[in-house]
Amino acid sequence: MTSREKLSDDAIAAFLSKNPGWERREGAISRAYKFPDYGAALAFVVRVGVAAEKRDHHPDMLIGWGRVEVTWSTHDAGGITPVDIEMAERTDRLYGT
Questions:
Q1: Where are the beta strands (DSSP E) in 19-59?
Q2: Is the dihedral of CA 32, 42, 35, 51 positive or negative?
Q3: Residue 53 belongs to a domain with what CATH number?
Q4: Which terminus of the chain has a lower count of CB atoms within 10 Å, N or C?
Q5: Is 38 contained in some domain?
Q6: Which tens digit of pLDDT belongs to each residue from 38-94?
Q7: How many CB atoms lie within 10 A of CB 8?
Q8: Using an 8 Å Cβ cutoff, are 80 and 7 in contact?
Q9: According to the model, what pLDDT value does residue 47 have?
Q10: Which residues pair with 79 in a beta bridge?
Q11: Taking Cα atoms as reference points, which of 83, 38, 35 lies closest to residue 59?
């Protein structure tokens, strides 16, 4: 399987069971992160954005005061792929979990 082929429901469920905070939503995986203020949230978005650019795989991100929601999906594959899992795990490391 290449990193851009859709994962099975079992593989996605296995990831979710081992990674608290992530949830499956409409063919994607999402997680909300909390921060002490807007500046810290913005700095996190920049770190995730740099990692995404290096991997050439970009999430949807919603930023608010002290909160960022990150959503990973592979649009051309029509769902969640190994690269989404890889980048979700990278996002958690950037957050410090």
A1: 23-25, 28-34
A2: positive
A3: 3.30.1360.20
A4: N
A5: yes
A6: 999 999 999 999 999 999 999 999 999 999 999 999 988 889 999 999 999 999 999
A7: 10
A8: yes
A9: 98
A10: 74
A11: 83
Does 2 map to a domain? Answer: no
Distance separating alpha carbons of residues 10 and 2, to the nearest angstrom: 17
Query: Predicted confidence band at 97 (pLDDT cuts at 50, 70, 90)?
Result: low
- b/e per residue, 61-83, with b = 16+ CB within 10 A? bebeeeebebbbbbeebebbbbb
pLDDT at 60: 97
Domain housing 71: 9-95
Domains contained in the chain, number: 1
Per-residue pLDDT for 1 more than 50?
no
Which 3 state secondary structure label does DSSP give 67? strand
Mind listing the pLDDT tens digit for each residue in 2-29? 578 999 999 999 999 999 999 999 999 9
Please check whether residue 54 is in contact with residue 28, taking contact to mean a CB–CB distance below 8 angstroms.
Answer: no
